[in-house]
Design a protein that fits this description.
By secondary structure, this protein is mainly α. It is 77% helix and 0% strand. The two termini are 20 Å apart.
């Protein structure tokens, strides 16, 4: 039997489409909720983290506490990546993906049912933080399992496009969250929005998660998957990938470097922007939500084309273009948003372009990470790279930007943060080989 005959047959298109749908559905639910949390950060701060509403400085302190809870959930993502990644690598992609979507849906729905600080006192923020931790665990396992599934099902020459669907459903989730928040802000008085309207978007996660769970229970394992059972012992040699824990750890660190700009700029522009525009620049709630919707629209529109382009020209030129673009343009964009004389079309163009540049990183990013690890450790390796990058450069973004802006009165902090991370990420992206996208998965 020839080596070619030993390779798994390309999956049927119908099975590949089902895997793509099931793999990306959970991402939509996860990032819908994170988008909602970012859009309603000021509302959540008032309901859960403000001990004495109306006291001087209470609003800023409560917002910092809200983002501290946000960051804490991110630091549980690496633990979730290890836990669910090992399940995915040992027992298959489907069990891991079913578990993470069930946990995410439960935690998100319970947030919508939580009593506020006015109802039960200091226990309210602790309960909210506990549910955020559960979400962090599930989100940590989501990326590795979903991306592994999608790229392993991808037809030849389409890994970038299939992996880009993970990022695309992230964008759809953020857009859905921002759109839901904007719709509620438009139809509800401020008093009703703060009193009970904020609960509606979180409760909507229940039907969304139920559909995603149904899709995932019907999944089949990717073609060519090994039989269930433990992979080789830690540090065992793999002729086609990292040969030990040390080399695998170096691959994880390199993966973090390659996506740190994506993580930092993505959260600075896509999630933190609404509260920063309100607290630092004096924008109205509705104007901040409109800017968020526009930047997420540019992000969503560029992801799939970026993934497809990376299948043709390689991951490196597409991702480098995004990283360098943000490093150069982040400060001019923010200056334009702060300028009283800037026209609405100019501001809209700035936020749309910022979203497009993040999309150039997010489109090829999942496939790039998947190509760094062999199958036996792929869920764990790429999931851990992504989770650690997000824990440090995304989870802390809101806390860092809000606290440093309040301390220094420098309203350009988001631009410093995004540009610096992207400049460092560009250096790591230079280590990509030009033909990695053409090599078979290991």
């Amino acid at each position: 039997m020839t080596p070619t005959e030993l390779l798994p047959a390309p999956p049927p298109h119908a099975a590949a489409r089902r895997a793509l749908l099931a793999g990306s559905a959970g991402n939509l639910v996860e990032w819908y909720e994170f988008g909602v949390y970012g859009c309603f950060a000021t509302v959540i701060a008032a309901n859960f983290f403000t001990p004495h509403p109306g006291t001087p400085g209470g609003g800023a302190e409560a917002l910092v506490a809200t983002y501290a809870s946000f960051a804490l959930a991110f630091f549980f993502r690496p633990l979730g990546a290890l836990l669910f990644g090992r399940i995915g690598d040992r027992f298959g992609r489907r069990p891991a993906l079913v578990l993470v979507i069930g946990l995410m849906t439960l935690a998100t729905t319970l947030i919508g049912l939580l009593p506020t600080r006015a109802d039960i006192g200091a226990a309210a923020p602790w309960l909210l933080t506990f549910l955020r931790v559960l979400q962090g665990l599930s989100a940590g396992g989501e990326f590795g399992g979903a991306v592994s599934l999608m790229v392993e099902y991808a037809p030849p020459g389409r890994r970038g496009l299939y992996g880009a669907w993970q990022s695309f459903t992230v964008a759809l989730g953020l857009l859905a969250g921002a759109g839901t928040a904007a719709a509620l802000a438009a139809v509800l008085p401020a008093e009703a929005l703060y009193a009970w309207g904020w609960r509606i978007p979180f409760l909507l996660a229940l039907p969304l998660g139920t559909v995603a769970l149904w899709l995932r229970t019907a999944l089949e394992e990717p073609p060519g998957a090994h039989s269930p059972g433990p992979p080789g012992p830690p540090g065992a040699a793999d002729a086609t990938g990292p040969t030990g824990l040390g080399e695998q750890a170096r691959a994880v660190v390199l993966g973090i470097g390659r996506i740190m700009g994506w993580s930092a700029a993505g959260y600075a522009f896509l999630v933190v922007l609404p509260s920063h525009l309100q607290s630092a620049l004096g924008a109205s709630f509705r104007d901040a939500l409109l800017a968020t919707a526009l930047v997420n629209l540019g992000f969503a529109a560029s992801i799939l084309p970026a993934g497809l382009l990376s299948d043709r020209v390689g991951r490196r030129p597409v991702m480098l273009g995004g990283a360098l673009g943000i490093a150069v343009l982040a400060h001019p964009f923010l200056h334009l948003l702060q300028s009283p004389g800037a026209s609405p079309p100019a501001r809209a163009a700035a936020v749309l372009t910022a979203g497009v540049l993040v999309g150039l990183l997010a489109g090829p990013g999942p496939a790039m990470l998947a190509e760094m690890f062999p199958r036996r450790v792929r869920c764990t390796g790429l999931g851990l790279s992504y989770a650690l990058a997000n824990a440090v450069f995304s989870g802390c973004a809101g806390l860092f930007i809000t606290a440093l802006t309040a301390r220094t009165a420098d309203t350009a902090v988001p631009a410093h943060y995004a540009a610096g991370a992207c400049a460092l990420s560009a250096v790591a992206l230079l280590t990509l080989r030009g033909n990695d996208h053409r090599e078979p998965l290991r």
